[in-house]
Amino acid sequence: MAAAARAPHAGQLLREWRERRNLSQFRLASGSAVSARYLSFIETGRARPSREMVLHLADRLEVPLRERNRLLLAAGFAPAYGERSLASDEMTPVRDALERFLAAHEPYPALVLDRRWNLVLANTAITPLLDGIAAELLEPPANALRATLHPDGMAPRILNFDEWSGHLVHRLRREIALTGDAELEALLAELLSYPNVRGEPPPVDAAAAAEIVLPLRLRHGSGRLSFFSTLTTFGTAADVSVAELGIEAFYPADAETAAVLAR
User: How far apart are CA 189 and CA 207, in angstroms?
Assistant: First the structure.
């Protein structure tokens, strides 16, 4: 019977994050108040880093909070960051803040997404975005990328699908590079299997260069809606769940869209 694979030690994980950030040992060490030799010993397992050193290096490498907990466990320490359900009593202030933001943003659409683009909360103004999406794509946990790019989702109504799909795929690739999340990699592979989804943003032409921001242009009834969006995150989160939430807020990109939403 084959022996079970050994879990990676903290040094191996730190090396993976350093390489993901395209940093040499020297560059990481020079900005971390540690010698390159000692960092090499940590990565090879010849030296056991302290809890403070693990957190210091994780901060320098901008490791997500979830993965910082994993680093600490691999080094033999307890996790530093809690992970609470948004439905728990402790999260009431966070939940109330999110709901106030969503309500205040009406009549424009806004939604809260988790780290894997699953819908957590939304305001009532997202109805124009959901029109025509197959019911099974909206069953919890509804995934925003899947609902947008799937041929039974929003895709047939997106007038600039080539640009928008390339933009979303580019965002997803960037998040995979930052987090190393295997489930996001699987989601990317699924999205790229959908018809006409671009693997990268299209080349910039003269019309695109004249835009201030890339709009989402959506067929709606006999007309169209045009949006741009912003993404907001919690800047001082000390809880894993909160750190992984993002608020996508849509704004009208032209007067016609603003008038339709106001009605």
Answer: 30
